[in-house]
Write a structure and sequence with these properties.
The complex is a heterodimer.
Chain A (H helix, E strand, L loop, with lengths): L1 H18 L1 H20 L16 H10 L3 E5 L1 H4 L4 H8 L4 E5 L5 H12 L8 E6 L13 H8 L7 H10 L2 H12 L3 H19 L43 H4 L5 H11 L2 E6 L14 H16 L3 E4 L22 H11 L6
Parallel strand pairs in A: 1-2, 1-3, 3-4, 4-5
Helix pairs in contact in A: 6-12
Chain B lengths: L5 H16 L2 H17 L5 H21 L4 H19 L2 H14 L17 H17 L8 H9 L1 H4 L7 H9 L6 H32 L7 H32 L17 H7 L2 H15 L6 H19 L3 H21 L4 H4 L4 H21 L3 H8 L8 H34 L13 H18 L13
Helix pairs in contact in B: 1-2, 2-7, 3-4, 3-6, 3-7, 4-6, 7-9, 10-11, 10-19, 10-20, 11-17, 11-19, 13-14, 14-15, 15-17
The chains are: A alpha/beta, B mainly alpha.
């Protein structure tokens, strides 16, 4: 009761204060000032948000130096399944080149194919693209903010196909966010600010080790390698939380980057192979799949066949049981060589 | 609908605009409909639960007042509806899993069919708010409302529906029923609270959560790395939950309604009791008024008091989640309070006045709070045992260096919280003027400048993917 009485007095005080015309005027002025500050200040931050010139020419040079026959593109799904040393041992030296980065999805894959593999004068025989479920037709997935820089490193200033595909695949919220990003280009500033905070933390602990403005946290990334994570840790995407609209193959395929990848590969005379990885199985057997996902996969398979592109689905592979999985959909490091051999066996025709 | 989404911002702007444009008599019904849209935005069927509890609570309260001969039966029915819903949707799996485990232990293992029940967001919050209304009517502290809209809006008022603060009828109902007047100062205060809340969530909580999540994914963390992760979680949970409260209070203020304060710089607490006067105040006062005091409170001697404290905190732990680690966490706090009360009497009063003692108390409390957060965060007992048996001597220099880096990173992101404490501590430590928002007493240009800085910081420092509020799952 005491509390209620005290709060009532405070509210009455506030009401008395609010009734004063000067306070009211100040309030309105304050609201206008805050609004103006909020709307105008971010526009003062100039660094470009999109279309960076941070292209990683080193990677292109490395690729050109290897001149591989087979190229593998993907993210940790690829990294945890394919052991490069085993590939080299089985297929011979200078046979393969693995292009992977953690968290990369469809947009990164497209850029790697376009600006590394097909930008080089060397043409490989086959390019294997690893993906999960419906991610191929989601070009905006992991293509913003903290993932953008990875795509940026494979991107030139003018990328009409990427821009078109991403614009066509955005929801109205994403579209609005993107437009705001264009008006208020703060993305670069965000990267610099978090790198500066990281640098400062590093400077406090180990002074002088990292150049000003560079992130000091990267040297500790090794502590959190897949091998050190809990076996029960959930994967970064949850089956239960999937958005049903993503299973609508017909609605997404044309706006995705798949047609562009097929077109570019055909033009260059490079064989394209899409490899769908198996999600985490159950103790009883293969992972449960929604009927919508089964229908989506059937349509994808038919679409790729119509376009003369190979498709391999590892879902239901009897050799990939739950024991082989580390966390989520990742294969454990001790099974990587076996998984690579399994892959080579299943796709032996591609390597003849 | 989640607060840190564009959808919510659009929703809030529309609701605030229409609310003030509408004639006063339609405002409550409009707010009620808006609140239902807010709650049913992602999963419309959740609304049936909310409607069920609302009707049950409304009918029970009216029954208590109008049929005094059966008031007890109506009380039990009202509480039963709330607790029954909680039991089914929140504790069913917990109950079944534990019964199955016991049966297995005694050799009577039976296959249990898997039934998946989705946990509706905010169920614990609106169930407790409903119970408090029924109990208050039963006790005669609140008049049962005949207006269904009033009761329904009290139950569903969207800013505080999903994660509190848990309001009482004595505080919120009169405000919802009164004619609300548009006030520029409240709008500005509300806006500033919103910006501060979004800053805490998007900049502090989300950034430090990256450290906490990384560390708690490790199979074998080293001692220093584990505690750097616990420190990160300690900052994350405070920034995250208090951010929700600030956004809720800010949104409510823009609609002319003052919600109760839920946090008062809890990490500046000097004792376990003090911590619970500062942390999740609306829940701790709920348990105090509806569990601890009815059990007998501190009447009846030390032993009974200890029993009441422990029962209250074990229930409070269970309220947080259907998992034994939350019960353990509740028990830990109960034990801390019992021990601190016992020891407090042994120390001469003048000792507490010595210079530096309160600083030491804060440091000690902060360490004990961190230990508590480890119990809270580590839901798997196997890992918890492993964590508690880690030795600092077995960690390498590289481990200590990495941990120091992550701890520094967390501290840097937490600096605004520390600064806020120093600006606000007179009010917070005084306690009496708790209802007065600290921002209200600052000159307007200063408030504008601070809001601008916070807004810029949100743009520049927020993470790309904001996690859900931690307390959503409770």
């Amino acid at each position: 009761m005491v509390d209620v009485a005290e709060k009532s007095t405070v509210i009455e005080d506030e009401e008395r204060r609010a009734a004063h015309p000067a306070t009211r005027r100040l309030g309105v002025l304050g609201a206008v000032a805050v609004l103006a500050a909020v709307l105008l200040s971010p526009a003062l931050i100039r660094p470009s948000a999109r279309g960076s010139l941070n292209f990683d020419s080193q990677l292109l040079a490395e690729y050109g130096a290897v001149m591989p026959q087979y190229v593998f593109i993907g993210n940790s799904m690829l990294r945890s399944r394919i052991d490069e040393d085993v590939l080299l041992a089985r297929l011979g030296p200078r046979c393969c080149f693995v292009l992977w980065t953690g968290g990369a999805e469809s947009a990164w894959t497209h850029q790697a194919l376009k600006n590394i593999v097909l930008a080089s004068t060397h043409r490989p025989r086959k390019v294997f693209i690893f993906f999960r479920d419906t991610y191929l037709t989601q070009p905006t997935y992991r293509a913003t903010d903290r993932y953008w820089w990875k795509i940026e490193r494979l991107t030139h200033a003018d990328e009409p196909e990427l821009t078109r595909s991403m614009a066509a695949s955005r929801s109205w919220q994403e579209q609005l966010e993107y437009r705001l990003g264009e008006i208020y280009p703060v993305q670069k500033m965000r990267e610099r600010a978090s790198a500066a905070i990281s640098w400062l933390a590093g400077e406090i602990v180990t002074p002088g080790r990292v150049r000003f403005g560079q992130s000091a946290g990267e040297k500790y990334d090794g502590l959190f390698d897949l091998e050190g994570l809990r076996g029960t840790a959930a994967d970064d995407t949850s089956f239960a939380e999937e958005d049903l609209s993503e299973f609508d193959f017909d609605a997404h395929i044309e706006s995705s980057l798949v047609p562009s990848m097929i077109h570019m590969a055909k033009q260059a005379g490079v064989g394209l192979v899409f490899v769908r990885v198996q999600r985490r199985p159950t103790p009883q057997g293969p992972p449960a799949q929604r009927p919508e996902l089964v229908a989506y996969t059937a349509k994808l398979r038919a679409y790729l066949a119509r376009n003369g592109v190979e498709f391999h689905d590892f879902t239901g592979d009897p050799e990939l049981t739950l024991d082989h999985y580390l966390d989520g959909d990742h294969i454990g490091p001790q099974w990587r060589a076996q998984s690579t051999d399994n892959f080579l066996r299943r796709l032996h025709g591609d390597f003849e | 609908m989640i607060f840190q989404s564009l959808d919510f911002l659009v929703f809030l702007v529309l609701v605030v605009a229409f609310h003030w444009l509408l004639p006063a008599r339609y405002r409550s019904i409009f707010l009620l409909l808006a609140s239902w849209v807010f709650y049913g935005y992602v999963h419309p069927w959740f609304l049936f639960l909310l409607w069920f509890v609302t009707v049950a609570v409304y009918a029970a309260a009216l029954g208590i007042e109008r049929l005094p001969a059966h008031r007890r039966a109506f009380l039990i029915a009202g509480l039963g509806a709330c607790l029954g819903m909680l039991g089914v949707f929140k504790y069913f799996h917990f109950f079944v899993d534990n019964v199955a485990a016991v049966l297995r232990t005694v050799g009577l293992g039976v296959p249990i069919p898997e039934i998946r029940i989705m946990l509706p967001v905010g169920i614990s919050f609106f169930a407790f708010q409903g119970m408090s209304y029924v109990i208050d009517v039963y006790r005669g502290q609140v008049r049962a409302r005949s207006s269904f809209v009033s009761v329904a809006l009290f139950k569903a008022f969207f800013p505080q529906l999903v994660a509190g603060p848990i309001e009482r009828g004595t505080h919120l109902l009169p405000q919802l029923e009164a004619a609300r007047v548009l006030r520029a100062d409240l709008m500005v205060e509300g806006f500033l609270l919103l910006v501060w809340g979004f800053f805490k969530k998007l900049v502090i909580a989300d950034n430090v959560s990256i450290v906490a999540n990384k560390v708690f994914l490790l199979e074998h963390p080293s001692f220093p790395l584990l505690w750097a992760g616990v420190l990160a979680f300690c900052v994350q949970i405070f920034a995250d939950f208090s951010a929700y409260t600030d956004i809720a209070r800010g949104s409510a203020k823009m609609l002319g309604i003052n919600l109760v304060e839920n946090f008062r710089h809890p990490y500046a607490a000097i004792s376990p009791t003090d911590f619970w006067r500062r942390w999740h105040i609306s829940l701790s006062t709920w348990f105090r008024d509806y569990v601890y005091i009815p059990l007998g409170g501190n009447r009846g001697g030390r032993l009974l008091e200890a029993r009441n404290v422990m029962a209250t905190f074990l229930l409070s732990g269970l309220w947080h989640g259907a998992s034994w680690n939350y019960v353990l966490w509740g028990g830990y706090w109960g034990a801390l309070i019992i021990v601190s009360r016992s020891l407090g009497g042994l120390v001469p009063a003048r000792v507490w006045r010595w210079r530096g003692v309160s600083g030491l108390q804060i440091v000690l409390m902060f360490a004990l709070t961190n230990l508590g957060w480890l119990l809270f965060r580590e839901t798997d007992f196997r890992y918890l045992v492993n964590d508690l048996t880690l030795s600092p001597w077995r960690a390498s220099a590289a481990d200590w260096q990495a941990a120091a880096y992550f701890a520094c990173l967390v501290c840097l992101y937490s600096l605004p919280l520390v600064l806020h404490y120093y600006v606000d501590r007179g009010r917070a430590d005084g306690g009496a003027a708790a209802a007065a928002p600290s921002v209200a007493s600052r000159p307007l240009p200063l408030r504008t400048a601070v809001a601008m800085c916070l807004f810029l910081a949100i743009l520049v420092l927020r993470t790309s993917n904001s996690a859900d509020f931690i307390y959503f799952k409770f």
